[in-house]
Structures are given as structure tokens and as C-alpha cells.
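seq as requested:
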Amino acid sequence: MKKILIVDDEPNIRILMEQTLEDLEDEGVELLIAENGQEALETIQSEEPNLVFLDVMMPKMNGLDVCRTVKHELGLTQVYIIMLTAKGQEFDKQKGLEVGANLYMTKPFRPKEVLAKSREILAL
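C-alpha cells:
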């Protein structure tokens, strides 16, 4: 079973992402949720999701640190990480890619784009 982890400290964003991706559950995709960076890291280690939508600014551990830990310290390079953030400056994107993010999307995001990208990454 393929898994997508949604990581955001904002309840409204988590709900919007869940609603956007819920159709994929009919195609055998399990949706996982984490509310902060520490929880995200624990979930990634225990569940090994195929795809992670990762917020940058979060409590306990920010998204950049989570990404760096997953890709460089744990060596989980097969986990596809999309940084999802309000910080859309070129500098911020560069920082995200440097720590190992596969893609960088800015908020507000288009739900159709998120769904299409998810289908493409998971080969659905």
C-alpha cells in the first residue's frame, strides 16, 4: 500500500490537504497526518511513506531539519519530499532543495495541482 504523509501545524491546511487527497484512498493510498516536525520524523521512520508534504515553519522541529534528517542522516532517499510553505523566495526554495527536498510548492497551493503531482509521483 502506498502512503502519503501530510505534515502541517495548521489544522485548516491539514484538513484541506486531506480533502484534496482523499480520492486517492479509493486507489489504495493511505493518508497519514503529523502536526509537528518531531511527529513527522517518527512517522516517517515507522511508516516509510512514499510521499511527504512537509510544512517548513513548525513547532518542535522545522521542516528543513526534518528533511535533512530523513535524506542525509537516515538515508531514506526513496521518500519523496515536497516542501509546502508560505515562504516563496528563491533563497527559501534553494535552502529546501539543499536539505534534500524533491520539490518546493508555495502556499496557497492549488488542490488540483497537489492531486495531480501526487498521482504522478505515486504512478497512479
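Strands lie at 2-7, 29-34, 51-55, 80-85, 103-106.
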